C-alpha cells in the first residue's frame, strides 16, 4: 500500500474511531431522527453529565460528523451526514445474522 492509499484508509479509520462508542452512536441516531438537538437534550438522552456528552460531541465534530450552532447560551448540534442510516441498517443485518448463526450452533 502506498502512502496516498494508506492516508485514505487512515482517514476512514478516524471516522470509524469517532463512531466507536455507544453514546456517540446514540447521539448520531438522535440527530438523524431530529434535525438538531441542544447539548442539554442530548445529556438527558445519553444519561451522562454535560461535560461527558460535550466531549463525545467534540469527537464527532472533529471527525466532520456533526455541525454546531450557538444561539445565545444554547448550543445546538446537527448531523452533517445522511449516509449513516444505511450503515446502521447494514450493522443491524450483521448482528441479526451473527445471532442466527450462534443460535444454530447452540441447537
What labels would you give this structure?
3-stranded antiparallel β-sheet, globular, Arc Repressor Mutant, subunit A, 13% strand, 107 residues, 5 helices, alpha+beta
Poorly predicted sequence stretches spanning 5 or more consecutive residues: none
What's the CATH topology label?
Arc Repressor Mutant, subunit A
Helix fraction? Answer: 55-70%
Number of helices: 5
By CATH reckoning, the class would read Mainly Alpha
CATH superfamily: Winged helix-like DNA-binding domain superfamily/Winged helix DNA-binding domain
Mean pLDDT: 92
Radius of gyration: 17 Å
Please state the structural category. Answer: alpha+beta
Biggest sheet details: 3 strands, antiparallel
Question: How many domains make up the 3D coordinates?
Answer: 1
Strand content: 5-15%
Pfam families: HTH_5
Keywords: DNA-binding, Transcription, Transcription regulation
Protein name: Putative HTH-type transcriptional regulator
Domain HTH arsR-type: 4-99
Question: Can you give a write-up of this model?
Answer:
GO terms for molecular function: DNA binding; DNA-binding transcription factor activity. Keywords: DNA-binding, Transcription, Transcription regulation. It comes from Novipirellula artificiosorum. It is a single chain. The chain has helices spanning 3-19, 22-33, 39-46, 50-62, 84-106; strands at residues 37-38, 66-71, 74-79. The protein has 107 residues and is an alpha+beta fold. Strands 1-3-2 form a three-stranded antiparallel beta sheet. It contains five helices and three strands; from the N terminus they run ααβααββα. The protein starts with a helix and ends with a helix. The longest helix has 23 residues, at 84-106. The radius of gyration is 17 Å and the shape is globular. It has a single domain, classed as Arc Repressor Mutant, subunit A (Orthogonal Bundle), CATH 1.10.10.10.
Amino acid at each position: 500500500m502506498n502512502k496516498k492509499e494508506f492516508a485514505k484508509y487512515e482517514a476512514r479509520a478516524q471516522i470509524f474511531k469517532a463512531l466507536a462508542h455507544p453514546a456517540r452512536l446514540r447521539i448520531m441516531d438522535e440527530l438523524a431522527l431530529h434535525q438538531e438537538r441542544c447539548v442539554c437534550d442530548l445529556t438527558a438522552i445519553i444519561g451522562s453529565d454535560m461535560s461527558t456528552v460535550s466531549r463525545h460531541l467534540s469527537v464527532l465534530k472533529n471527525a466532520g460528523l456533526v455541525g454546531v450552532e450557538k444561539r445565545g447560551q444554547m448550543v445546538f448540534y446537527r448531523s452533517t451526514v445522511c449516509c449513516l442510516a444505511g450503515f446502521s441498517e447494514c450493522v443491524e443485518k450483521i448482528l441479526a445474522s451473527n445471532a442466527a448463526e450462534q443460535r444454530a450452533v447452540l441447537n
